[in-house]
Amino acid sequence: MNTSWFQVKIKFQQVAEGDKVINVTEAYLFDAVSYTDAETRGYQYLANGRQDFQLFSITKMKLVEVFTQEVEEELWFKCRVQYIIFDEKTKTEKKTAVVMLMNAKDIKHAYESLKERLGSVEDYIISDINVTKILEVIPYEQTPEQILSQGNFKPVNEVVAAEPEPSNAALAEVEESLSEQAEDDSNSGF
């Protein structure tokens, strides 16, 4: 499945200190196949923790990679990386920019982690790292039923029920073979 990332923004009202009602905006990132899928997944996921909210924005984000790591603070950083490629025809260097997302506790940690992930395979420049307002990244997860429906899989109980019982003749043949093998072993000194 082709990965597409959608930023979903919601608004809701929250009671702050002093019984003052304030408007809150939150952003989440969903892996979805379409805007409709992102909207559906957004409502399903966010309805569990919120009583009354309005989903007001869905924006497709062009991300090449989303790196998730276990850290104490979950800040999400949008990282712009420029790969440097030498063009043999024109004898010039070309820069191709890509955007990646990474969680880290601060900008320094994001830079170091990104550098570690990219390694030294190609020439690149990390040209920009900005903190985002994304609170959580929700990857696409298929249920076991969805996975099974895509392949040629059957539940174990159906496979076991479909296997034929061995016939008496087949059982007798196996027993005879085992007894002959036992005789051969005793004659050969084992």
From TrEMBL:
Highest taxon of source: Bacteria
Pfam families: DUF4494
Database matches in InterPro entries: DUF4494
The protein, known as: DUF4494 domain-containing protein
